[in-house]
Amino acid sequence: MRRSRVRVMGIDVELLEFDEGVETVERAARASGEPPEAIVKTLLMRAGDEYIVVLARGLAKVNTEALSRALGTPVVLARAREVRAVLGVEPGAVTPLSEKVKALRIFADPGILHYEYVLVGGGNTRSLIRVRTSDLVRALSPSFVGDLLLEEPEAHDEDKGEPSQSQQHVVSG
């Protein structure tokens, strides 16, 4: 793993580059040595006629039914060709720190706030970005959805508190 400090979207981050692919949470966790729940996946989804982005922790599955209720329209995971067309990258290479992602409505799992730093996609299948969670939230201004996940991943550190009400913009369904 090679590490370098870079600035992306006005944020100082650490770029982690690997010899092997890190396009899945499992591979990213194994290569980086971080627990899966500290890895935030960036998912392109279709909500009716609109594309949205969902930021979710680790191995958890997105509760598309709850998100559909909250948005008032069916929500489905975008196909690989849609990811390429909308975001200009392959699935598994999506980074939330891109102007193309920022141009879309973004929804996030409030559980990402449990971590001071998280790993996100680095824009290709062999890199990750280590970013301060507060910087990620500030850059993207996501709406936090309380019941976004079907299964709640176990917290890595039980002593980390719940995010305060002032840190959340909750969309209720």
From TrEMBL:
Residues 163-173 have a biased composition (Polar residues). GO terms for molecular function: aminoacyl-tRNA deacylase activity. Residues 154-173 are annotated as: Disordered. InterPro entries: YbaK/aa-tRNA-synt-asso_dom_sf (IPR036754), YbaK/aa-tRNA-synth-assoc-dom (IPR007214). This is YbaK/aminoacyl-tRNA synthetase-associated domain-containing protein. Residues 20-138 form the YbaK/aminoacyl-tRNA synthetase-associated domain. It comes from Thermoproteus tenax (strain ATCC 35583 / DSM 2078 / JCM 9277 / NBRC 100435 / Kra 1). It holds the Pfam family tRNA_edit. Signal peptide: none annotated.
